[in-house]
From TrEMBL:
Keywords: Electron transport, Membrane, Respiratory chain, Transit peptide, Transport. Its main location: membrane. The keyword Iron does not apply. It comes from the Bacteria. The lineage of its organism: Bacteria, Pseudomonadati, Pseudomonadota, Alphaproteobacteria, Sphingomonadales. It comes from Sphingomonas qilianensis. It is found in: Membrane. This is ETC complex I subunit. Residues 1-22 are annotated as: Disordered.
């Protein structure tokens, strides 16, 4: 039985915007470990489900899809957003 992870996409650490962080993603856990290709040295496997990432507007929609398709799943909660409130005057203390 395939297993899946359901999580909310984190904010990109190199940018200040929060675009696409409200969507939820369902991705399959790898069924077999990756091994290096003898010719190119790139890591790969025969598991094609590793390439599939499904997007959902809410966690409930992703859970409903997983239950409807008979997938075992784990929901990974989004990390709590920590605000660091600063004022420009704090630079000169």
């Amino acid at each position: 039985m395939p297993t899946a992870r359901i999580f909310q996409r984190p904010k990109n650490s190199t940018q200040s915007g929060r675009a696409r962080t409200d969507a939820w993603v369902l991705e399959f856990e790898p069924a077999e470990p990756k091994k290096p290709d003898p010719l190119t040295g790139w890591a790969g496997s025969g598991d094609t489900r590793d390439q599939v990432k499904l997007g959902f507007p809410t966690a409930e929609a992703a859970i409903a899809y997983a239950e409807r398709e008979g997938l075992a799943f784990t929901v990974i909660a989004a990390p709590e957003r920590k605000l660091k409130l600063q004022a420009y005057a704090d630079n000169f203390r």
